[in-house]
Specification:
Distance between the termini: 34 Å
Structural class: mainly beta
Number of helices: 1
Strand content: 25-35%
Shape: globular
Helix content: under 10%
Strand order of the largest sheet: 4-5-2-7
Length: 101
């Protein structure tokens, strides 16, 4: 069972480059958290962390790999509550179309 605990922290963000600053400050429409294969346990995301994770972007979607300890520190601010969220395992592809034989 995976227990999801969205916890936020409103801390000042330290950015190291203009590109990282840009990526961390974008507001996603979707967030995807990629879990390690076979992960079981609670998940914790903490926003506004200096030196935290910067997402990779696919259009309007922020993609974060979840560390094996289940605690992800994110550099950017918490997105609006309207942001859709998905949790997927690293070994599963979410962009594959189902092929009918």
């Amino acid at each position: 069972m995976i227990l999801i605990l969205p916890i936020t922290a409103a801390l000042a963000c330290a950015r190291t480059s203009p590109r990282a600053d840009e990526d961390a400050s974008r507001i996603p429409v979707f967030e995807i958290f990629v879990l390690p294969d076979g992960y079981r346990g609670p998940l914790l995301t903490i926003y506004g962390q200096p030196g935290g994770a910067i997402p990779s972007w696919k259009a309007d979607t922020a993609v974060y790999p979840m560390p094996s300890n289940g605690i992800l520190r994110i550099a950017g601010a918490e997105p609006p509550h309207s942001t859709k969220t998905a949790y997927v395992f690293a070994n599963r592809r979410t962009d594959q179309a189902d092929s009918a034989g």
